[in-house]
Amino acid sequence: MPNVTLAVPEELHKIMRSHPEIKWSEIARHAMKEYAMRLEVLDDITSKSRFTERDALEIGDEVKRDLAVRYRKAIKRRSRHTSS
Q: What is the pLDDT of residues 50-69, one digit of tens each?
């Protein structure tokens, strides 16, 4: 089995050192396996999709426009209520 070296923040390392009874490499291995399995599912789903990056960008732009309109209306309603 190949070895992988990880760098962790000092605060996390301090917590890990305070619990030597825990097999941290096993936890890391499990977390990475779970994440990799999710990636494989996503890869499988997206490989069958006809949805393009351009489609995603267009939908994102529409969502941003709709949110901007909604927030502007909410701000106008608030300003009317506070000025009354």
A: 999 999 999 999 999 999 99
**What residue segments make up the domains of the chain, in order of their start?**
1-49, 52-84
User: Among positive and negative, which fits the CA dihedral 68, 71, 77, 83?
Assistant: negative
* CA 12-24-5 angle, 5° bins: 80
Give residue for tokens 């000025």: 83
pLDDT band (50, 70, 90) for residue 82: confident
As a whole number of angstroms, the distance between CA 55 and CA 58 comes to 5
Nearest CA-CA partner of 28 in 3, 57, 48? 3
Is residue 39 within 8 Å of 61, Cβ to Cβ? no
Angle, CA 12 vertex, CA 10 and CA 16 arms, to 5°: 115
